[in-house]
Design a protein that fits this description.
Elements lengths: L6 E4 L2 E5 L10 E4 L2 H9 L6 H18 L5 H16 L6 H15 L4 H31 L7 E4 L5 H4 L5 H10 L5 E5 L6 H13 L3 E4 L4 H6 L5 E4 L3 E3 L4 E4 L2 H10 L4 E4 L5 E2 L13 H4 E2 L2 E2 L12 E4 L6 E4 L2 E3 L3 H12 L1
Helix pairs in contact: 1-2, 2-3, 2-4, 2-5, 3-4, 4-5, 5-7
The chain binds 5-S-methyl-1-O-phosphono-5-thio-D-ribulose.
The site of 5-S-methyl-1-O-phosphono-5-thio-D-ribulose has 16 residues, from α2, α6 and β9.
Protein name: Putative methylthioribose-1-phosphate isomerase
Pfam family, one: IF-2B
GO biological process, one term: L-methionine salvage from methylthioadenosine
Length: about 350
Amino acid sequence: MAELSPVKWEEECVSILDQRLLPFKIERIRCETVEQVAYAIKTLAVRGAPALGVTAGYAVALAAKKCEAQSKELFLKKVERYVDLIKSTRPTARNLFWAADRVFQALKTGESVEEMRKKALAEALLIHKEEIEVDRRLSEYGAELIEDGDSILTHCNTGELATAGYGTALGVIKMAWEKGKRITVYATETRPLLQGARLTTLELINAGIPTKLIADSSAGYLMKLKKVNMVIVGADRILKDGTTANKIGTYTLAVLAKEHGLPFYVAAPLSTFDLERDEIPIEQRSQEEVKSFQSCKSAPDEVEAWNPAFDITPPNLITGIITEKGVLHQPYVKSVKKAFERLG
Ligand code: MRU
């Protein structure tokens, strides 16, 4: 089975698996500059909030490695410009900002330029290691919610490719399967970029889990026919009251789940939570992504398209949020606060 690690640190570069080519081609991009990493993020060669966090961490370490300066102050200024570049790539994924800031803060504690470089890389590697551990922990908690014989609907891609670890929503599903629960998974295509069709089905097939791919528009009828009994998705950013941004189409699934009396779970590490903001910036992407797929046009050139990459699901539609500190329930203002207290 091919190695699907989405991002790795290599001697002089950040190595990124080009997810735009999956599942048909496995190719890695050697990013030797921060500009190359930023481009890979913008064009979705690497994607998924936690994997973007790991990538952002490595990008800051790469910036530190490449920047030359006579003084510590000048060095910090140069690196900070790259931190800002990385933070300007995709606005919604909380982990990207969290990791870039965390590595930059760690770097600042170094006495010399050489020490700052070492500290940045050590912190970036630690973020990656933690992601792997945290994914497994939240997957253990989530797997307890799944019964033998369950049929689960999931959206977008939330596995190893999206986290650089074990996965979040897909991690929960994989963990339940590994524990011997016989489950079936329905994966949405996830228009416009087909992360579900291209990536989630690939990961589920590799794990040997019975999988069915559906067009996004089939979800309501699927629920009506009782072919699924729960929904689990990931998150790009979660506010302190549980308000969740995730791949466009998530809100539709949450509303449908409510209408059909199905539990709707969100799985995400605490690094996806944003306790400071009251609103989530939603990334708007190019019209071309809706009007075509790869190089194949699917709409008249003249038509205008609207392409938000994410939507917002309000807390009242969310049954529980699966984290590495356990499954959080309503009222989220209280349970989220408690989870962060347990983090200290
Ligand atoms: O645009 P993408 O592919 O980066 O969107 C990814 C998602 O929406 C995922 O559901 C989310 O980041 C969680 S990944 C564990």
